[in-house]
Design brief:
globular; 12 strands; five-stranded antiparallel beta sheet; alpha+beta; 18 helices; Arc Repressor Mutant, subunit A
């Protein structure tokens, strides 16, 4: 099987996993091998990027996964950099921290090296004020460091994993999966529509019918679903038409189509093709080419680290030191965690004190606390 055939098969499995979570382990195995790694994970993190929840994982010893969650996440010097990466863009260790410093960190010495891990290819799938989601492929010593070829293969896979993960998240609370798709259709809290290749609505759940009745975000015109936003409507029409030709045809277009209500509220739409894989059963029974999921987006507020960095004009390294001071402790511990000299930590602390306008580490802890609730509104630098 050549590369294009392997990719096409993998994409089909990825979209099947959106409806059947038992398939994620096989998907992660296939994705890791396609990208060029020994293991991979689909994870969620809080806004600080320091308390991960590994949703699906394949290839790592479960004991190490548990110790990462309980202990080593707060010692991982790469997390902050990954959290700020552009969505879908592959990021390696050396992109966020000098590799020589990474090799001196406790995280590498105590967690990565014992497993033979030398690098990761990490891609952010979602980022909001309170949470983040990502996909990571772990590189073993036999795989070598992340190179351009690795990044290229990641770019082929990540958009599809992002679409499937976002749909999986939308369906999670209702457990509406492929085996009971039709039976549980109306119980899904998000608005959901089954659409044919021409954009005509062949079925809508209760929430979807309410959305059409109000016509604030979407409306039905001669049986066809129409978005109030012209550009979004064109994008959706193109995706529905492409979906009829299968997963490869739909490509990476419209993974998260932004919609705006007439009243100003923001929504997002995800399209899942139903003409390939095990999803074909759901699509065939309704004569549908795609499933459209629509839900209201979270408040577009910055995460706590993002807000702090913006307010005080912090460099990435200054932000890492700040978060390490709060999460780990004093200068010696921070130096060990980040893999840098104590004198370097003190230099960055001096810059932090000057920019923030304080003189003690306790003041830095209080600063983090002051930004602890991004939903309370955007914080600005005090005068």
């Amino acid at each position: 099987m050549d590369k294009s055939e392997r990719l096409s098969e993998l994409i089909g499995h990825i979209y099947d996993a959106a409806l059947d979570p038992t398939l994620w382990l096989d998907v992660l195995d296939g994705a890791a091998r396609f990208v060029g790694g020994s293991a991979s994970s689909l994870y969620f993190r809080d806004a600080d990027g320091r308390r991960p929840d590994v949703a699906y994982q394949h290839g790592l010893d479960p004991r190490y996964v548990q110790t990462y969650i309980s202990t080593y996440a707060k010692l991982d010097p790469t997390l902050t950099g990954y959290f700020f990466a552009k969505l879908e863009e592959p990021t390696a260790t050396a992109d966020v921290i000098a590799y020589a410093e990474f090799l001196q960190s406790r995280f590498y010495k105590e967690w990565a090296r014992p497993q033979g891990l030398v690098d990761t290819a990490n891609a952010m799938l979602e980022r909001s004020a309170t949470t983040a989601a990502g996909f990571v492929v772990f590189r073993h010593e036999r795989d070598g460091l992340v190179d351009d070829a690795t990044r290229g293969r990641m770019r082929l896979v990540v958009p599809h994993i992002r679409r499937a993960a976002l749909i999986d998240k939308t369906l999670h609370l209702n457990e509406a999966r492929s085996t009971v798709f039709a039976e549980t259709f109306d119980s899904i809290s998000a608005a959901m529509f089954l659409i044919d290749a021409g954009g005509r609505i062949v079925h809508a759940n209760a929430t979807g019918n309410v959305m059409l009745d109000t016509a604030d975000v979407l409306r039905a015109v001669a049986g066809r679903i129409v978005a109030n936003d012209v550009q979004a409507d064109l994008t959706l029409a193109e995706i529905f038409a492409a979906a009829a030709d299968g997963d490869s045809a739909i490509g990476t277009r419209g993974i998260a189509v932004p919609l705006r209500a007439i009243a100003g509220d923001r929504f997002v739409a995800h399209v899942l093709p139903l003409t390939s894989g095990t999803r074909r059963r759901a699509g065939t029974s309704f004569g549908a080419a795609a499933a459209l999921f629509v839900h209201k987006t979270a408040l577009e507020l910055p995460s706590r680290p993002e807000a702090i960095a913006e307010a005080y004009k912090l460099t990435p390294m200054e932000l890492r030191v700040l978060l390490a001071v709060v999460g780990v402790g004093g200068v010696p511990d921070v130096a060990e965690v980040l893999g840098i000299a104590e004198t370097t930590v003190k230099t960055h602390l001096g810059a932090l004190y000057k920019k923030i306008g304080c003189s003690r580490q306790a003041d830095l802890v209080k600063l983090i606390g002051g930004f602890s609730s991004p939903l309370a509104g955007r914080r600005t630098k005090p005068t």
